[in-house]
Amino acid sequence: MDDDRVNWDDILEVGLGGPGCGLLKIDGREPRGNYRYLPPALFHDGKVYASSFVSGGFMICVIDPESLVRQELSRRLPYARLKAIEAGEIVYFDHHSGDSESRLPITPRTPRLAGLAARLRRR
């Protein structure tokens, strides 16, 4: 992604021969939390979409560039390098070789307990 608002620092290889993940900076500031991100990040409708490295894989997330709050959109995935946003979905490579693509709707995940709490409040 060629956007002056996003840059990467301290890129390190994840595992032997794995992808390089680094510290994401949006307008010179780091998102909240202690995460490393796999380049590239995508801007769409005023939000930043990125793939963060977590124990055992990657999670696709959305970051508000003003508050720098990160929200998870996906479950833990073995690999997720973002490619594009098309028709309300994030297109990402799901294999390190880049020959296989998957799609994920942009809508944020609802935590399991939040759904249960909402149902209990309606009673």
Helix content: under 10%
Mass-distribution shape: globular
SS content category: mainly beta
Tally of contiguous helical segments: 1
Distance between the termini: 48 Å
- The strand line-up of the biggest sheet is 3-4-5-6
Q: Could you list the spans in which at least 5 consecutive residues all have pLDDT below 50?
A: none
Major sheet attributes: 4 strands, antiparallel
How many E strands?
Answer: 9
SSE order, one letter for each helix or strand:
EEEEEEEEEH
Bin the strand percentage: over 45%
Mean pLDDT metric: 85
Radius of gyration: 15 Å
Provide tags for this entry.
mainly beta; three-stranded antiparallel β-sheet; four-stranded antiparallel β-sheet; 123 residues
